[in-house]
Every structure is written in structure tokens, then in C-alpha cells.
Amino acid sequence: MQIYFAWAGVGEEFDFLLHSREDEDVLAFRLSHKEGEFPVLEVEVPFVKTYDSDCHHKVFLSCPKGLLFTGHVEGMPVRQEGDSRWLTFVAKRSDWADQVDRGIEGLKKLPQWEPLLVAQEDHKNLVEVLKNFTVEPHWDRRTGELTFSDLFIGRQNLDLGDEFFADSLKVSGSEGLCARVNMSAKVQWVQRYEGLVDLSGAFGERGMISTLTPSFLKQSWWQKGHFLRNSGYAILKSGLKEVRAVEMGGLGIFPQRSVDFETPEGTKNLPRMWFTPTLIFHWKYRQKRQEILELSLSLATTEKGQEKDFSVQLENISFDEPVPLWRPHEWHVPKSQVLREGILYECKQLHESGDQFDNNLWTDKGVVPCALEDPASATFFLTARGEKAVDALIERARAHVISSLQTVRVYLEMPFEDAVDLTCDTVVSVKDDRLPGGCVQGKVKEYGFVGQGDGGNFYAYMTLGVVPENLKDVGMIVGSGIGSQVSS
């Protein structure tokens, strides 16, 4: 097998006619690629030249069937071994981090993504983001492009049949089946509720009060800003407005003078003054809450397997500064804020809300996302948003179980030229009487190419992850329970 090794400059694209050359005398090489990792190429060349990292940035490895590998130098790629040296290259482009960022943004658009299960500082951490998905990153050994490959379904299929080296076949077990996952999810927040109570109409007769000592009444009336002792109540608005009440004849309503009383000087009465009172209280309620969801997911099978426990602390589900929901028939003060249909509004003037929301009384401040839409809620997991988080937790448990179903590993070696298009995004079918049922189909977990110079031993190898027949189409059983705690 003829192998070509060509150095290339940054940004240079592969051209078979141009790059089918031997810039180095390849004594041996090993090209390996494991699922989820970057492909790596190790090349043994004679120790006759000094490696120049300033000139040798990139390499193309190819054969008569086409390009095998595009690699870049990373770190110290040279290892001396006797009269030869080993050069190491990684299929890792200079923009790999940008590719990861773009890939993460794409994953976040999928329904499996749940930001509450990932710490804010890890929202750009691919390992953390992938915990709710049954995919692995796939780095193309030829282009360095990042895609995401399903654990079981490949973008290409290879029906190998029995076209492999028979004596290379090995069947073994993997790390083991995960038959049950127990998830514990904890969420904490401060339950907040506040409102206004208007007692103005609760005094006296028809919303008015009268007094024979108006100066004392005004002096002793509640003052704005006063807090009621040992309570969450404060006086928001207070006042007395003198009114001219018209006495209603013999009904005794709105009398203008007191009843007669006797004095040494004779029968007398005093003038009665009438006031319209205003007394509005603002109240606040605060309570720390913690809710714990215990969830289990089990395979509906008698097959023995491992049981794994995981715990998750959900991210902040409420605003740092509490914002109440808009409600009808409540008082609102200028600059106060409310949430309505996910939009933040700021009050323009003091008013009591009616049956319908009045846009003229509010300033639209834009959409403000918050998991706990109602800060007064005593539960999270039982809200619509909480149920979405529960679904995501079930999906995470499911991902743990599914990723363990490939409990059989099949290793084999095959002719080099038959495997040039092999990737970790390939599903391979193999036939052999030594295999369970005489044939298996599995996803490539690892593959590679090995070469020993011109005319030497060349072959490809692969390891397949196979789901045994008794675990195919097996169902899952979900159990859950929610506990709520109040803390001081």
C-alpha cells in the first residue's frame, strides 16, 4: 500500500495531484480514533532532519484511494526512538473551540436542553451540556469538522459480512449494564408574596368618619411609612379629607352636631366634623423553601445490572430582586414592577388595577425569563415550568441507561483498503458463526489504521458497541416523588 505524507501550510486545502507526495519517508504509522475524541496520527520517520515547528504546521496523509487524515501539530509532536522519530498530529483545527460553541448553541435549541440542570458557568462546557443527550461529538479525521453522532444510529452503514480477518475476532463485555438510575433533584428559593390592603372604606358610616375633636383625630391618625409592630405591614398612604356631609333629615345620617347634653350653663351640643379617610397598607411575606424530587428509572428487564445514583442542584429559579405577577384589583405604586405573560412592566402612577390590564398605566421593560413565574408559589416541580424540568431529569436518567445498553464489544481487523471511509459515525454489520445469532450490528466505538512502510503489514481495526437481543426494544419504568420543606 502506497502512503503519501505531505506537509502543508495553514489554510491549504487537500489536492490529490498536489499532495500525493512523500515529504517524509514513512517507516510506520498509527491512525486512531475513539468515539467522542479527536483523531490522532502517529508517524515514524527517519531521524535525518530537524523538525521545524515554524514551517510544519499541518499534514495530509493519503493513499491511492484518497485522503486519510488532515492533522495539525499540537504541543511537542516529536518523540525520538533509536534512529527514528515519531511525529504526532491531531485532527484539531485552529477553530475547534468556535465549532464547539456553535455546536452547543445548536444543542440548546433541541427539546432535551434544560438550562436549570447545568450550572451557569458550565453553559459552554460541552461535557456538561451533553449529559441530557444520547450523542457524542464526532470530529472528522479528514476535515476537522465537528458534528454530533447518535450513540446507536450512524450517518453511514457498512455491511461487512464476513470480509474480515477471521482470527482477529474477539467478543467481550463492556463496563456493564446500568439497569436503574436514581436521580435526586433539589431546588431552593424564597417564596415571596406582597400586596396592598385598602381599609379606607372600612371606617364609619358610608366610608366617612366623624369626630367632635378634629384636632386630636388628625394628630393621632396613622402616619405614612409607619410599620405595624411584629408584622409585615407598612402604611403606604394615609390621610383625612374634611368633607361637608349633608344631614339626611330624620334618618339620623350624617348629623352635623352632637346629641344634647346638660351643663351648669344649660343644654348644649358640639359641632360634628366629617372626614373621608385614606388608609392603605403594603404587606410582604417571605419564606425560604426547598423542594426535592426523587426520581428513578429502571429497565423493564430481569437482566442484572448496576444501579447508579445522581444528584442535581437546580440553578436559581427566581429573580434576585422579586417581581410579583400582575393581578386585578390590587394597588400599584409608581416605579413598582410586575410580570405579565413573561414581560416586565413598570408602574407609571399610583392606581388600583381593574379587571383588565391597562397598558397606559405601565411601561413595557421587555421580556425577562424566570423559571419560577410566580414568586408566591409554594411549589416549583408542580408548575408548568417545573414539569418541563422533571421531563429533562427523566431524559437525563434515560441517557445514562441508554448509553450502557451496548454491553457487548466486538473487535476485528480487516483489509486496509476496505476501511478507508470508516468513521465513529458508522454502523457496521458483521457475520460469523461465533457471534450471537451468527450476526451482529453495532456502532463503531473505536477504529484505526496501522501501516508498516512500503510493502509492510497494513490493516484496519475496529471495535463495535453492540446491544444484545434481550435488551433491544426494552421498556423503562419511571417512579417519582416530591418532598417540600420550609426552612427558617
List the helices and strands and how they pair.
Blueprint: E1 4-8, H1 16-19, E2 28-34, E3 40-46, E4 58-63, E5 66-81, E6 84-90, H2 96-107, H3 126-129, E7 135-139, E8 146-150, E9 156-161, E10 170-173, E11 178-198, E12 209-211, H4 214-220, E13 233-243, E14 261-263, E15 266-268, E16 273-299, E17 306-313, E18 331-332, E19 337-340, E20 343-347, E21 351-352, E22 362-367, H5 384-402, E23 408-415, E24 426-431, E25 439-451, E26 458-466, E27 476-487
Parallel strand pairs: 9-24, 11-17
Antiparallel strand pairs: 1-4, 2-3, 2-25, 3-6, 4-5, 5-6, 7-8, 10-23, 11-16, 12-16, 13-16, 14-15, 16-27, 18-21, 19-20, 20-22, 23-26, 24-25, 25-26
What keywords describe this structure?
488 residues, mainly beta, twelve-stranded mixed sheet, six-stranded mixed sheet, 5 helices, elongated
Q: What do you see in this structure?
A:
It is a single chain. Helix content is 9%, strand content 43%. Strand 14 and strand 15 form a beta hairpin. The protein is elongated.
